[in-house]
Amino acid sequence: MTEPIDEFSFLAEQAAEAGIDRPAPRGERLTLTLPDGRTLSALRYVPATSSGSPAAGSPVVTFLHGAGLNAHTWDTTILSLGLPAIAIDLPGHGDSSWRTDAAYVARVLASDVAAGMDAWTDGRQVLVGQSLGGLTAAAVAASRHDLVRELVVIDITPGIDPNAGPTQIREFFAGPTDWATRDELVDRALAFGLGGSRSAAERGVFFNSRIRPDGRVEWKHHFAHLAAAMNAAPAGPATEPSQDALAAVLGGAGWQDLAAAQAPITLIRGDRGYVTEADAAQFRERVPAASIITVSSGHNVQEEQPVDLGARLRELTGKD
């Protein structure tokens, strides 16, 4: 695969593939230094006007990705949305710093996300989170009512069985942590049924990997390195499910966060995703005021149904 000109050079190609007929937005990389010295990174998108110049306006939608992904997973959804938006790299992912304590659970991540929203947004947001990002979004909505106008949780519910759908993520990343070329990573993603088309998988791998000084390619996010270390560890207490880096993020504390949120809540689940009919029924029982929408998709709805998702989110903003 060839190296792109810059990280936003894919946008026109993505828009064409998705049949989105509007000028590509201007993309900008944002960086915030947190109190402990770590950095939080994000992408800001400003839609272009019909003349091609950037439109005015602060973000109205904030996006949080899932475990093992990064902010660019939302690119095509944001192209479809057509509104000012930011997408945050969760700690340990993308260009955000890794946590030395490996505490990638929603309530820990929420304070970093809130700091980013304080710095980069001017008004209450439609806060959209998928998977780990969905649980983190719920924690933000519970603790910072002033930041969230609408909460959208995509294909995750608190306490979901980590030995069901999420095992695919664990198995995908529990392998080597470095590779000779990015093409090897693309082949692996496609072998696991991830990424869709080869061009889409190449984009995903480019944004989710980096080239080390020795020329080897490695995953950017911490989860792959944690999963590989656990896979290599001898059997014993350290390999119990409670110590699993992915299982740890799926705890039931999210039910309390959803109950404490004051913003309207929407759950969007893929009919082939991680949230089963039984999970959706439990969600309906525990969060009776929430709306539940089922779409034809797997777990990564933002990558499988980005145009539909963008349109649905635009409706929630009241901009149509």
From TrEMBL:
InterPro entries the UniProt entry points to: AB_hydrolase_1, AB_hydrolase_fold, AB_hydrolase_sf
MF annotations from Gene Ontology: hydrolase activity
UniProt cross-references to Gene3D superfamilies, sorted A to Z: alpha/beta hydrolase (3.40.50.1820)
Pfam families: Abhydrolase_6 (PF12697)
Residue span, AB hydrolase-1 domain: 63-308
Keyword Hydrolase: yes
Keyword set, alphabetical order: Hydrolase
PANTHER family per record: MONOACYLGLYCEROL LIPASE (PTHR43798), MONOACYLGLYCEROL LIPASE ABHD6 (PTHR43798:SF5)
Name of the featured protein: Alpha/beta hydrolase
Source organism: Microbacterium deminutum
